[in-house]
Amino acid sequence: MTPSTHDEPRRLAAIDLGSNSFHLLVANYQHERFQVTAKYGEKVQLAAGLDDDLRLSDEAMQRAMECLARFAPFVADIDPRHLRIVGTQTLRMASNGQELIAHAEALLGHEVEIVSGREEARLIYLGVAHSLADVHGRRFILDIGGGSTEFIIGERFEPQALESLEMGCVSYTRRFFAEGTIDESRFRQAEIAALYEVESIRQPFLQLGWSDPVGTSGTIRNVAAIVSAEGASVEGIIRRDALFRLRQQLIDCGHVDQLALVGLKPDRARVFPAGVAVLCAVFEAFDLPFLRYSDGALREGILYDLIGRNTPEDSRLKTLDGLDLRYATDRRQAANVVASAMAAFDQVAEAWQLGDEQRQLLAWAARLHEIGLAVSHSQFHRHGAYLLEHSDLPGFSRTDQRGLAFLVRAHRRKFPIKELKEFPATVRQRYARLARLLRLAAILNHSRPETPPDDVTLGVEGDVLLVTLPGGLTGSALLLGALEQEKNYQLAAGYQLEIIPGAR
Questions:
Q1: Does one domain contain both 345 and 213?
Q2: Where are the beta strands (DSSP E) in 229-349?
Q3: Is Hydrolase a UniProt keyword of this protein (predicted)?
Q4: Do the beta carbons of residue 291 and residue 242 sit within 8 Å?
Q5: Residue that finishes a domain, picked among 243, 277, 307
């Protein structure tokens, strides 16, 4: 990635809501360089607060909110376009995660994005790749988090394989070391569980191959510090023999309360044996002779991704191009619907209080509204919605994917009130308004014209949408019939659409 140059510095910030730790990174960006102005991390151990029903405890949510309250002053005056708050594995899993997200958004005044495991891996790769020398050859990147472990193979700034497995230092602590006892049996059980998870990706990764194995984040940083302090490895390098000597040291200690290793922070001691067990399993599975530590991680990757947003290098544009190709969309028709949707949006945006982010989301949905045709013409809006919600879409958060899926689902036939009500009340009106604009754009282009119809005028009175047709369209019985049906669909959903014929 080669970010665009800006003469004036931009202040950017990333908050990583991890399963073990929350991290804040604030930096000024100028002349294609970052200057870090604030960097903090706190052990929140969110994953430790999950019960058997995957509900976060009140105590875990309280720890999270206290941490975010300390982060809040650092991001209070940052342009919302230059801030991203990203939630990972525990917030992907937690059945009551939306409650914590709502509190966090109210406190920070900004949306919290929940990203998929592979999107998390992509962002980690960006952070690591930019922290290392720009050398040729493939890299193997490993990040052991609190609730998941990410595996990436990439070259320069392009990932080639991305995987996220549900194993981490906090989740494995609960599963194998809950009482603090460390012995050979427990350690091996944890390693075998990790080996089982890794087995599903082992062969494809080995077939790709790499020349440079790199690890990042807390567990690997602490292991590297410990083996270096003991003179067992060169600083920043974890050699296989040194790692397995450390494994035996942990077992010999017998209990987490007895751990006293130079380089191990006290607040990480409880989850450290589980993290080492996962790391040993990875070394065993891939027969790694060594792993070197990099301090680039998810939060750095978020900042680099922010720099590329809304530029030709935006990863989301590559994803859209890939979807067009994969599902063989009719690009002319998609472009026509996009044009009509954007024209409609621009006429009502101010009155309906819709901003740039909503305009972009509507454009994406208009571009992708027919991808379900690759599955079947029957109910293709439903098929398209399913594909968008459940595919891995690099660059898109789960929130973005869910919003896209809803708009595509809502662009024709009965208005999906049930699906709309699944969104938080604060955003329902916004999504409903975008869906109504997309529905109109699709109807105006239903005959698949060479160019989209122009001179369609929109106005609003509250939530009443007023559509004035140009004279050339008022004579189309098919169009008027479709609009009449649309009036009924919207009325059944509680919305009012008025069609005003123009002079012929």
A1: no
A2: 237-239, 290-294
A3: yes
A4: no
A5: 307
Query: Within a 10 A sphere around the Cβ of 283, how many other Cβ atoms?
Result: 22
What tokens appear for 464 in the block?
Answer: 């009443």
Which helix (DSSP H) or strand (DSSP E) does residue 42 occupy?
strand 33-43
Domain edge (last residue) among 452, 478, 494: 452
Tell me: the pLDDT tens digits for 348-407? 999 999 999 999 999 999 999 999 999 999 999 999 999 999 999 999 999 899 999 999
- The pTM of this model reads 0.88
- Number of other CB atoms surrounding residue 253 within 10 Å: 16
CA atoms within 13 A on the CB side of 12: 25
How many CB atoms neighbour CB 176 within 10 A? Answer: 22
Strand pairing category for 464-469 and 496-501: parallel
The pair of three-digit structure tokens given for residue 271, joined into one six-digit string: 């989850």
Residues 6+ apart with CB under 8 A from 498: 464, 465, 466, 467, 487
131: containing domain: 118-298
The amino acid that residue 40 corresponds to is: Y
How many angstroms separate the CA atoms of 257 and 270, rounded?
8
- Report yes or no: 469 and 499 within 8 Å, Cβ to Cβ: yes
What is the number of structural domains in the chain? Answer: 3
- For residues 164 and 150, the answer to whether their CB atoms sit within 8 Å is yes
Which helix (DSSP H) or strand (DSSP E) does residue 346 occupy?
A: helix 331-352
Beta pairing class for 290-294 and 237-239: antiparallel
User: Residue 321: how many CB atoms within 10 A of its CB?
Assistant: 10
E-strand stretches of 240-362: 290-294
The values of phi and psi at residue 48, to 5°, are -65, -15
